[in-house]
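Model: You mentioned two targets. I'll fold them one after the other.
Researcher: Yes, keep them separate.
Model: Target one:
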Amino acid sequence: MAEPARPLFFQTAEQRTALARQRFFDEGERPTGLVNEAVIQSWMRCTAARRDARQAVSFDPVTRSRMHACLTRNQQLLAAGNEDLQQLAAALLGTSCRVLLTDGQGVVIHASAPLGTAPQPLLDAGSRVGVNLAEGEIGTTAPGIVARVASACTVHGAEHFHEMLQTLHCAAAPIRDVHGRLAGVLDLSIEGSPFGFDAAGLVALYASTIENRLLRLQSPAHLVLQFQASPRVLGTPLEGLAGVDVNGQLAWLNPVAQRLTGANALAHPPVDEVFGLAFGDLLALHRAREPQALRLPNGLTVWVRAHIGSADGVDFNRAVATGAPSVQADEVTPQAPSTDVAPSSTLDDHRDRVITETLAACGGNIARAARQLGVSRGLLYRRLRAPPGAAPASADAH
C-alpha cells in the first residue's frame, strides 16, 4: 500500500517544524527551508555529540567556584545591564516571560523573578544563577545557540532538540565587548505558550543598549564618538559608537557604527581614515555643546558627539566649555581645520590641556577647578605634579 502523499504547503509554523523533525530525526534528511538554519546546525551538532532527543535533560548549575568566578569576571557586564534588565523585567510584568543574562559560555549570571501564576517547571529550573544553558549541556535553545555562534536566534517549541523542552519558546541576542568578543547573551523565555509580541525585536533592542553601556564602561582611556545620520537618535540603541585610543587609532566600533562607516575595527586604522578628520579635530568636538555635522570619507553626513573617558578619575567632559563653533553639514569636509587641538596631539596631551585651561578659568583656584572636573583636590594636585601625558599613580574620584 502506497504511503500517503506529503502536503506541498503547510499553513502553520508548527506543521513545518513537525515535518522538519520527521525528516531529520526519523528519515535522516536535512530539513532545509522548514526551520531556521541556525536550528538545523544546532540539531546537527547535538546529533554529532550523540545526544538523544528523547532523553530527559536537567538544568544543572556549575560548581560553586566556577559560579563565583563567572560573577566576578562579569561585574562590568552586570553593571552595564543593571538598569536595562530592571526596565525589561518591568515591561514584561503583564506576560509570563523570564529575562536571563548569561556569560559568553552560557552560564546564567542574572535571572528575573517568575511572573504570573501559571506553573513553569522548566523555567523555574533553568532560571537560576549558575545554571549552564550551553548547547553542550541542554541541546538546542536560543541562548545556547547564541553562546555558540554569537548571532541572534529564536527557538520555538518543537525546534528545541530535546522533546521535553518543546513547551519552551526563547529569543536571544549577543552582547559583545570592546574586543569584538562575545561578552554575554540576553534571553527572553516563556513556557507553555508562544510569545504574544516580537520577542526577537525586543531582546535585540535591549541587548544593543546593554552592549553600548558595556563598551563605554570598558573605554575609560578612549575618546568615545556617538554618531548617526539623525541627531535625534543619539543616546538611543540606534546610535553608532566608536572608541579611539590615545594614539588616534580606532579601537572598536559597535555594529551600527560598522554599518555607517564600513570600517574594520579589528584592523585598528587611523581615525582620520574612518572619519575624515585628524585626531585633534575629533578631540575638539567634546567641547561642543551640540552635536556637530561631519561628512565621512564614504560621503555620508553624520551628527557627532564626543566624550573623553576618565581613566584617572577626571571627568574632562565637565570642564569649562570653550564654545566650539557649530558646524553645518554643508561646511564639513574631510580636511576641516582644527579648532582647539593640534592634530598631532594625543589624548593624554588633551587631558593635560583641559586641566590647565580649567584651572586658568577658575583663577588658579584648585578647589574650584576640582569641583568643575568632578574630582578631589588631592587627585588634581597629583595630576599637576605628574609628568606631561602621565596619569597619577592612584585615582580618587571623590
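Model: Target two:
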Amino acid sequence: MTGEVDDMLKLARATGDDDPRAALAAARELRRTADRTEAAVVRRARVQGLAWAEIAEQLGVSRQAVHKKYGRR
C-alpha cells in the first residue's frame, strides 16, 4: 500500500504542472489510482467484518451506494 501512496503523492504534485496536458493526464491517473485504492480498502474492510453501513459512513456515501459499487464483486 505504501507504493500506491507514494504514486498518488507524485501524481498529486504533477497536477500542478505548467503544461495543462501533463496536469490533466496526472489528474486522470490520480483518479484511477484512488479508485483502485478505495476498492482494495473496501475489500479489506469487508474481510475484516465491517458492515456495508460502516463502510458507507466512512466513505461519506449511502449504504446502498457503496453496496451497489462494491457488493457484487
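Researcher: Noted. Anything on target two?
Model: The chain has a mean pLDDT of 92.
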